[in-house]
Amino acid sequence: MLRPPTAADIPAICRLVNDPLIAQFTAAIPYLYRPIEGWRFLAFCARLPETSFSAHFLLALRGSPRHIVGAAGFGPDPDGGVAIGYWIGGPYRRHGFAGEAARALAQRIFTASDAEQVVATVAFDNFNSQRVLKRAGLRRIGSCLRPFRHLRRRRPMIAVAITRKEWIRRKQPRPSSKI
Ligand SMILES: CC(C)(COP(=O)(O)OP(=O)(O)OC[C@H]1O[C@@H](n2cnc3c(N)ncnc32)[C@H](O)[C@@H]1OP(=O)(O)O)[C@@H](O)C(=O)NCCC(=O)NCCS
Predict the structure, then answer these.
(1) Binding-site residues, ligand 1, Cβ < 6 A
(2) Does the residue 177 lie in any domain?
(3) Distance 100 CA to ligand 1 centre (A)
(4) pTM higher than the cut 0.70
(5) Domain presence at residue 176
(6) What is the pLDDT of residue 178?
(7) What CATH number corresponds to the domain at position 79?
(8) Cα 129 to ligand 1 centroid, rounded to whole Å
(9) Rounded-to-integer distance, Cα 148 and Cα 150, Å
(10) Per-residue pLDDT at 176
(11) Which ligand 1 atom is nearest residue 123's CA?
């Protein structure tokens, strides 16, 4: 499930997000991540305008909502559309959580806003996330360089997107070949 972060989550966020893999592949998450960064994240979430174009969530287990496995969110993309992002903690990878999160974010964006496109930028060498996004229906639309401040360099990224029309088409049941 997607739920807002609370102060009680800060120790678990710090434990999961202090991971070189997350530092390597996410542009906006500080590394090393200390409790003060957790408090800043909470304040950032609280300040977000109540629009359907930006929101940040923790990913928690449905039967045990205090148990977090990662985080996901979205915000306006400078080139148009709404951009999604996510990370999954090391012990929880390869359970389908990232795929479920990407689909849930896209569904929420297309249902609650009039955005025409959901986009993501993924590092050129982040093959796991590229597969997650491809399975969710996002297709390559270009490339760019993005600053990773904590690494003090820019990294080449692939931009992927799915339009509202494509999303709706994916949700239509396929016509049966027997008819
Ligand atoms: C990229 C990242 C988010 C993927 O998270 P994840 O939860 O492992 O992703 P998923 O489980 O949805 O999919 C990963 C693989 O597990 C497989 N999988 C899904 N459910 C599974 C299950 N129950 N059992 C075994 N494998 C499973 C998927 O089929 C997929 O296989 P593939 O890589 O061979 O295509 C994670 O590695 C991460 O946080 N990386 C660092 C941060 C990052 O890259 N963020 C994204 C920036 S764009």
Answers:
(1) 21-22, 25-26, 85-88, 93-99, 120, 122, 126, 128-129, 131-132
(2) no
(3) 10
(4) yes
(5) no
(6) 58
(7) 3.40.630.30
(8) 7
(9) 6
(10) 64
(11) 48
The number of folded domains in the chain is 1
Q: How far away, in angstroms, is 98 Cα from ligand 1 center?
A: 6
Average pLDDT over the chain reads 94
| Residue nearest (by alpha carbon) to ligand 1 atom 22 | 95
Nearest CA to ligand 1 atom 10: 96
Please name the residues in contact with 11: beta carbons below 8 A apart, sequence gap of 6 or more. Answer: 35
Around Cβ 37, how many Cβ atoms within 10 Å? Answer: 18
Tell me, in angstroms, the distance from the centre of ligand 1 to residue 146's CA.
22
Q: What is the pLDDT of residues 8-50, one digit of tens each?
A: 999 999 999 999 999 999 999 999 999 999 999 999 999 987 7
Identify whether 179 is part of a domain. Answer: no
In a domain, 178, yes or no: no
Atom 30 of ligand 1, nearest CA residue? 94
Q: Which domain holds residue 104?
A: 2-171
pLDDT in tens, 141-176: 999 999 999 999 999 999 999 999 999 999 887 666
